[in-house]
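Suppose a colleague, Dr. K., hands you the sequence of a protein chain of 367 amino acids and asks what its three-dimensional shape might be. Before reaching for any lab equipment, you can write down a predicted structure in token form. Begin with the sequence itself:
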Amino acid sequence: MRIGILTSSRADYGIYLPLLQKMKNDSFFEMEIIAFGSHLSKNHGYTLNDIEKDGYTCIHAISSLISNDDEQSIASSYGLTVLKFSDFWASHAYNLVFCLGDRFEMSAAVQAGIPFGVKFAHLHGGETTLGAIDNVYRHQITLASKLHFTATDVFRKKVINLTDSVEDVFDVGSLSLNDIKSFVPIDRVAFFEKFNVPDEEFALVTFHPETMSFHDNVQYAQEMKGALKAISEKIFVIITMPNADTQGSVYREALEKLKNEFPNRFLLIENFGKINYFSAMHYAKILIGNTSSGILEAASFEKYVVNVGDRQKGRVQSDNVLNCEFSETAIILSVAEALNFDKYNGKNVYYKQGVADIIIKITKEYL
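The predicted structure, expressed as tokens, is then:
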């Protein structure tokens, strides 16, 4: 069966990996990677190179991302992505195409496929992120998809409500956690030397814009900058840089200024890759920011997370998450509280065993 895999960023590609590795070695599937979005952006690390290194027999590269990140540029990128994929779907047919998450580029690629009758299988539908316009894109993708793999039963029920059908909606858990029990981090000394990290505790930080609060992001970026400056006096800070979201450059500029002002207290990483990122999470003392990995994955690494603002508001959370408002004072106080905790010993509500195998089994039955 001919299977397409839509991947628009380093984030969704890392989540896909356990499934891709199994499909690549299964003769039932003739798998093709369709890479677009920030994968082809030099400003975001040109992660198409990482995909090519993984040795797939067929990779399609579609460039459609405008470099600016204001509202008009994001809308223009959406339209350009639709145009590029209208040509792609006209000349490429698949038995099933996998799509994941809630990015605007992913939504555009999927919307372009509707007139062509493309059958989509959506991962991570039904979730809620009240502080991001991704909420809208995610639900658009859900409505355009035929097969659904959700991360919790709560999200499965939301997909059923959205589609008005219980058919082909499955609660399988989070795919990114598929191999978490057997994950072996990079050797600590090797990791610290590779990224020039000082031999001390560090916080792992990722901030993205709150895309439902366009006019607040300039202030939020300064609140973040002030908080991280104070936090860096107590603990070293490793920062993974923002994705291609509306006003993401505002946060990038603030983070780059921090690095320039305090070069010995901050490390900025454009693209860790999954193994390095999971290793960083393993060795980190805590996580700080508003990224989905703090909600989905950190609990499996026994880490506490300071989740800032509303970007992830509405997602089901494990007990390792400390929520705070997007203010310098609130972030500093929450981080101080989290630093006093030992390892998190509770469960991860997103974990289920053998997610990739379950998805493959259901997909084969569906086809």
